[in-house]
Every structure is written in C-alpha cells, then in structure tokens.
Amino acid sequence: xxxxxxxxxxxxxxxxxxxxxxxxxxxxxxxxxxxxxxxxxxxxxxxxxxxxxxxxxxxxxxxxxxxxxxxxxxxxxxxxxxxxxxxxxxxxxxxxxxxxxxxxxxxxxxxxxxxxxxxxxxxxxxxxxxxxxxxxxxxxxxxxxxxxxxxxxxxxxxxxxxxxxxxxxxxxxxxxxxxxxxxxxxxxxxxxxxxxxxxxxxxxxxxxxxxxxxxxxxxxxxxxxxxxxxxxxxxxxxxxxxxxxxxxxxxxxxxxxxxxxxxxxxxxxxxxxxxxxxxxxxxxxxxxxxxxxxxxxxxxxxxxxxxxxxxxxxxxxxxxxxxxxxxxxxxxxxxxxxxxxxxxxxxxxxxxxxxxxxxxxxxx
Length: 364
Fold this sequence. Notes:
With 364 residues, the protein is an alpha+beta fold. Helices cover 24% and strands 30% of the residues. Helix 1 packs antiparallel against helix 3. The termini are far apart. Mediates the hydrolysis of some nucleoside diphosphate derivatives, possibly using both NADH and ADP-ribose as substrates.
C-alpha cells in the first residue's frame, strides 16, 4: 500500500488550481462547474475541496485505498509513481549543473504567465526539498512579462544581453550565495603600428572628451565576444584606418577600475607590423588618421604630461632597441577543459629552436 504525504498532494493541488485559473481566463462568462476544480481524497483521512473555505486534515499522510485510491479532480491516482508523474508535469523543465544547482530550460518555458508563476513556485519547493542550491533562469526578451513574476518570487538580476535577461536564486538560507557574479571587466586594445620610416599610425576621434580634442592617439577599441586579443587589435586598426597589420607582441597592459558602469577595465597595448600604408578612415568614429613621426607624436603636450602614456611610449622605444621584450600568444590545449587557448609569454633565448624567440625580432 503506497503512502503519499499531505504536503505533496497539497502542492500538486495548488499548482493544478493555478492552471485551472489560467485556463479559465479566456472563458470568462462561460459557466464552469465547481466540481471541475474540486480536489478530493476518498476515505476518512483527509478532504480537500476548492468550492469550500475549509480544509480538514486528520493525519500527516494519506494512505491509498484498495478500491478507488486517490482522487484529484476526478482522476484516480492509484500510486506514488502516478502522483510523481503528475508533479513532474507541473514543474519547470530544468537540468542539474555541476555545482549542485539547476538550470531552467528557457526553450520550454510556459507562455502563460499564470502557469509560469504556479510552476515556478512548485519548482522552487521541489528544488528546496531535493537540497538544490543555485537556480539559473534565462528569460528571452519575447517573454519579458515573466521577469516581474520571477522577481516577486525572490529571483535577482544577474546580467542582461540583447536577447535575454539572466536571473538567479540562491536556495539555502543558512549559506551565503556561492553563485559567481556577473562579468567584472571590459577588455580593450590599442595598436602601436610603426613603419620603416619610424612613423606611428595615429588617429583623431570624432567623438571624445573636450579635454583631449585635437589629440593624435593610437587606434583603440574593445574586444568582441570570443575574440582573441591579437586579432582584436588587428581588426580595430583595420576598421579605424584601413591599414592591414600583423600582430607582434603585447607590450604592456593597464588595469583600471570604475571605468564604465562601475566595471573594471583591462587595456592591452599591442605592437603591430604594417602590411600596407594606405589610410582609409572610418567616417563614423574617426575624424582623421595619418602616419606621424614618432618623435613628433611623443612631443605632444598631453603625451608628455601623462605619466602612464609616457611610460608606454618609453616601453615601445625600448622594445625597438631590444632592451625590452613583450608577450606573444602561444596556442595550447589544457586538460582541464580540452579546448585550445592562448597563453601569452616571451622566449628570450631558445637553444633548441632560435625561431621560437620573439625577443630577437626586428620591427624596422
């Protein structure tokens, strides 16, 4: 004889009634029998009914009977297996992550907000009972009306992209949340391109702060999603000036905080070799571009007065005279994830293969 706890039956019934409520919305004005929404368990143990204000419970569990079993909205539920099947259909589709949490399948979300609210509450109860920890809920922009429902249930904003918003929920009340925070950094690159005449490729931006109006600067920009540092530098120079280049080294990088939207910033200064010299500016971002003698570039008042940028130029000049060596990318595969990635380092001297040394390379 199977036994099912009252809390399980109650949870099922609440969720079912939520569906009934959403089902009845389009049919307002159409009489629906109260019996259609009633829920009753045969036998003396308990009685649950939606057309009364009372719920009487005499014991903490309900035992199956040999004749009619459990009855829920006129459906005989003969066993715990069947009740579990009904419960699963009233929960959100989700799968476990590797950290003891769950990820809701955003492709199988109910379109009806009433159904979503009911299923979300039932799912949270189920995940809490199973000892789950973090919940990741991705809501597509097409279903943005579900966002306030999730927030009301205690979910918090994690991050947003063009097509979705990501929400999270930490279940254990006695433990601090271990869910990782949103991305904390933006990544930018600057291209130091020097030709055989010892001229550096510089630009004037069309939109800039009044304090740097008229400044000739290096081509700069942000790295795109899933883009390498070296390819991003080459792309930015091409987009802003039309000049083709080849990546050589990362000369230095700057780490700053509270730069944009309270995010930190990583800015990589890259040395590039020019493969062409014809300039075709990007009229949307760039006001002007040209090849400028390095000595003239360094003598600009704003460059001389900025300690950090002055040091960057000094490093670049040291690299040209082989007094400094930057970092070059090396593609390696880690056994941790089995994926290729770029490790940046320099090789001063390789006795086995001198070609591996990036420090002996001439730029001019």
